[in-house]
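Database export, one record per block. Field names are fixed; values are copied verbatim from the stored entry.
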Amino acid sequence: MKKYLAYTTALILATQLLGACKRELDVNQQGRITLDSYYKTPADAYNALVAVYDRFGFQTGGLYDKLSIFDVGSDDQLAGGGNSTDINDLQMMQLYTYNAQSGPEAYLWGRSYGGIYRANVLLANIDGCKLDAATKARYIAELKAMRGAFYFDLVNFFKNVPLLTGTVPVDSLYKVVQAPPADVWAYAEKDLQDAIPDLPLKIANIHSEGGRLTQGSAKAILGKIYLYEKKWTEAAQLFADVNGTMNGTTFSSQYGYQLLANYGDLWLSKNKFNSESVVEFVHSALSNGSWSDAGASDGNLICVTTGPRGYAQKNSTAPDYFSGYSFLVFTKDFAQNVMYGDPRYNATIANLDSLKAAGAAAYTPGYNNTGYFLGKYIGRLSDKAAVTPELNFGQDEYEIRLADTYLMEAEALMNSGQSVDPGSRAYNLFNAVRARVGLPAIALNQDNLEKERRLEFAGEGLRWPDLVRWGKAGTVLAYKGFVTGRNEIFPIPQNELNNTMLQQSKEWGGTK
């Protein structure tokens, strides 16, 4: 979605967030739209809603987002790039050398609080926008659903965070304190619960509304929150509503969700808003993003960061990859010993060394090079935009897709003591994901579930959060530098602590 809105009041908490929203603040005084003159029309409300969605799928000008952070933090991938300091936040995430002064935590904090601020401002002013009752109710529901998702990320990634339920007066910005984590979890739950009834069952026109949240989207987010809280019964109930009724070994959802028949089709740029997409971050090849502010582009920046450096097709059998920066490469162990032989391999991993050995293509090895690239998101020449193509690929990202809700429901059912025997709902959900790629049914247990999630979602930013919530990150990621009792959460960014009442978490040497 395009960026429309210019804010003129102070953003929340500290200079980090001001920096994250610099493009909204650096405008000519004569062109500014003040709060006193804004929020008067339906168009004002819509543009402000779009501004919240902008933060929902926000990528930093440093050319990364949530997916990139958690990919390189996992045991399956490496940062890559040009050298050991290229996109240094990702290099620090790979080695667990980040701290309160530098690292990806500032992006994670700023993305969510920027979205919360924008949502709170619109909620406080929506009554003046002359909306009809149904439209107003839908906008409020979308705002609360996104705010709940932002708070879920914040409390999950940082634990000790402020809970801002409305706009904060400028003279109170630096007096904000952190809330008990349980209060933030509960608030995120309530926002989603409140939102669900007023969201549409389905998007009526994906060409004009694709990517907007629906009841199924909100229920999936809320179900995920319950899952992370180990509220197994509540999570299973929400996911059951999303996934639908069981008909033999298949499922029929009232929201129209269906697994795509061909796994590889998930990663075609043209397949936006497909039947497997539950929560999708929208990108556009028409945003005209430029290097003056790469983070302001609506293009998918991962498409260029994951492309092989110096890539060139030598014959027509080679993929039409866009030459990029060689980030997020898979480890040799994952490609050769974990993923090799799985039907999802070719859609997931681009084996550049095989292409090079066959004389089909050439590339220049980058830092951490293994020869195994993230094929799901490499940009294609056939998809490139006319203007600054490296910043304007239109391939969307999945935040939650149906295979994820299938496996999360199976996990919740298993942990709530429900049957996992052949023919049970949990067993059939688990094996529907395998059947889609032609794999035989196997027993549902924790080990098999973990392996299935690892293979199904490789390169999608889910491996790291999964390891943390399963309590296995300290063991699996110790070789990378992960320290149990510290790296399960991120440090509060130092810029947020300076001259405020916020306190650093005890895990990072603080008192909170």
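Remark 1: Residues 1-31 have pLDDT under 50 and may be disordered.
Remark 2: The beta strands are 77-80, 245-247, 250-252, 277-281, 312-313, 327-330, 349-351, 361-362, 372-374, 397-401.
End of record.
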